[in-house]
Design brief:
The chain is 69% helix and 2% strand. The protein is mainly alpha-helical and 393 residues long. The protein folds into two domains: 210 residues, no CATH class; 151 residues. Strands 1-2 form a two-stranded antiparallel sheet.
């Protein structure tokens, strides 16, 4: 056991670990700064959200340790794949039967209450599930048929499961997570090593199935385009025309960004968090960071997240194991897509989708699932280092 831990300690990816730790602690500070007024207005102690996030980070760290030392090869085991799928089905059934709204007044059901734990968001688990399941499915098929000869019809079940997951998340209704799930699937399949022609055939089949099924669902589900979502689309081009309604968050985000300038007002000195920007500790925490810390806060966040994405893709390019390559590429694309969608909404580049900023925004489910993903990525990195040293010796 001692030798096992020593070998892992020697090959542990310390730069990646400390980057994740720095971002999480920086996010904790900014959650405290941005949420004080919100907590007071709701009748809580000023540090209510901060204290909750501390607990979330402790749980996340324990999950990270388990994932970091659990060999990633086991995710391709059929029993593990079935267990992950069973958990997914239970979570989506639970949220459908007894789910709570992620946002008040829009009729969505995206959260479930887990006794003794609190609220849990199944769509966050779905992101990690798609990475691991797709990577395992393509890896197993590659072992059997070789990926060069793999045809779209031979992976019918992964396609069907992907459509099921995206449909479930879309009906919660979580458009941002649905987009991320699509981006993740593209990245994992692209990293699988299948020929370019087969790659496009695969997505042709996937797109056809997805289009037909989602078309039928849209036909019989009138609340997919809720008033809230339509308002976000309408206010996208000119949010100032809808400042008192659907454009309120984006307009106040602009005020926060403009008010901070290059140097920022100073830590804790935000004006927009004083009741102007709703729930600033969640989706719009980057606006508060820009207002209080200016360009330096932006550099910390983008530098840290960019480094994680770089590490993931560089690991995917470096490793010779197709399973490791797909997992690393999937996790890197997840962080990249989620960061882009969050910052795009905050700056008005794209319509709002309600996606959190990885490791920075307040939220238990998000930080716990992301920490599991980082543990898996570090495990992949450790095994890659061990294999590389074996070939060099």
């Amino acid at each position: 056991m001692k030798q096992y831990l020593k070998r892992y300690a020697q090959n542990f990816d310390y730069p990646l670990f400390f980057t994740v730790l720095l971002l999480s602690l920086f996010g904790l500070v900014m959650i405290y700064s941005s949420s004080m007024m919100v907590a007071i207005q709701k009748g809580f102690e000023p540090d209510n959200y901060y204290q909750k996030q501390v607990i979330n980070l402790i749980v996340a760290f324990l999950g990270f340790l388990v994932a970091a030392f659990f060999p990633y090869k086991h995710y391709a085991n059929k029993k593990v794949m079935l267990l992950m799928t069973a958990v997914l089905v239970v979570l989506f059934t639970w949220v459908k039967v007894a789910g709570n709204g992620g946002q008040v007044g829009i009729g969505s059901k995206s959260w479930i209450h887990v006794p003794g734990f609190g609220n849990f968001q199944p769509s966050e688990y779905a992101k990690l599930f798609i990475i691991l399941y797709f990577a395992a499915a393509f890896y197993r098929k590659g072992q059997k048929y070789t990926l060069e000869k793999l045809q779209p019809t031979e992976i019918f079940y992964p396609i069907l499961l992907w459509i099921f997951v995206v449909a479930c998340v879309a009906f919660e209704t979580d458009l941002g997570a649905s987009i991320i799930l699509c981006g993740i699937a593209v990245s994992v399949v692209a990293a699988s090593g299948i020929p370019f022609k087969t790659f496009w055939k695969f997505f042709g089949v996937l797109g056809a199935f997805g289009g037909i099924i989602l078309g039928i669902l849209f036909l019989f589900k009138g609340d997919m385009l809720t008033d809230n979502r339509m308002g976000r689309i309408k206010s996208y081009m000119n949010p100032f025309n809808y400042e008192s309604g659907s454009g309120h968050q984006v307009v106040n985000s602009y005020y926060a960004i403009g008010g901070g300038g290059l140097e920022g007002r100073g830590l804790g000195q935000s004006i927009q968090k004083l009741g102007y920007l709703p729930e600033p500790q969640t989706d719009f925490i980057m606006a508060i960071i820009m207002e209080e810390l200016g360009i330096w806060g932006v550099l910390i966040v983008l530098g840290g997240l960019g480094f994680i994405v770089y590490k993931g893709f560089s690991l995917a390019l470096r490793t010779k194991d197709p399973l490791a390559r797909m997992i690393a590429a999937g996790i890197a694309s997840w962080i990249g897509w989620q960061t882009f969608i969050n910052l795009g909404g905050v700056t008005g580049l794209i319509p709002l989708t309600g996606v959190t900023l990885p490791f920075i925004s307040y939220g238990g489910t998000s930080i716990i699932i992301l920490s599991l993903a980082m543990g898996i990525l570090i495990n992949v990195s450790m095994f890659e280092k061990i294999e590389r040293r074996k070939t060099q010796s």
